[in-house]
Amino acid sequence: MKVMITGPSCSGKTTLINTLKGKGFKTVGEVARELIKKGLSTNSKILPWKDFYSFELEILNKQLSIVKSVNKSDLIFFDRGIHDTIGYLLYKGGKIPKAVLELPGMIKYHLVFYLRPLNNYSKDSERWEDEKTSRMLGSLIKKLYLDSGCEVIELPVFSDDKDENIKRRIKIILDKVNAKHL
Question: What is the pLDDT of residues 93-102, one digit of tens each?
């Protein structure tokens, strides 16, 4: 079962993925973060602020490879996915190959959890968007999942207390996964 955790930047996706991993679940981290960390350490030109399209296409290739390699019977939680990458490409505009635009209709996740943004937006070394851009991208990405027929469950921010928010979001995610898995 493929379960997607998505939403705008600074909505708690990576924190939830790390929490699920800590509980023993199989997870796939955010490919963009990994590529940015690698690019910064090697002074690569394939970074979103240097060569946006090459960067996004590299993410897309890695995501496709990951999705093709997972065992369909395994429960796996993903931090962002192909729909997210296409959302970024659409946001920037320009010519996007038709085959790329068709991918969201071909890649299905059993459940998609869309996280509402946290109340304390902050940038870091891998997060390049400002808050307004992040929210706009989040809405576009959510629409891509919905338009491709994925079941999207929106998770609000329950509390400004980080631990309480994580606990409540994880409970809903695991309850929904268990209900779907039965």
Answer: 867 878 888 8
Q: What angle do CA 77, 80, 82 make, to 5 degrees?
A: 110
Tell me the fold of 2-181: Rossmann fold (3.40.50)
Q: What is the pLDDT of residue 49?
A: 80
Name the residue ranges covered by the structural domains of the chain: 2-181
CA 180 – CA 117 distance, rounded (Å) = 25
Beta carbons within 8 Å of 15's beta carbon, 6+ residues apart: 162, 166
Angle at 107 between CA 13 and CA 168, to 5 degrees: 25
Tell me how far apart the alpha carbons of residues 118 and 26 are, in angstroms, rounded to a whole number: 25
- Cα–Cα distance between 145 and 83 in angstroms, integer? 6
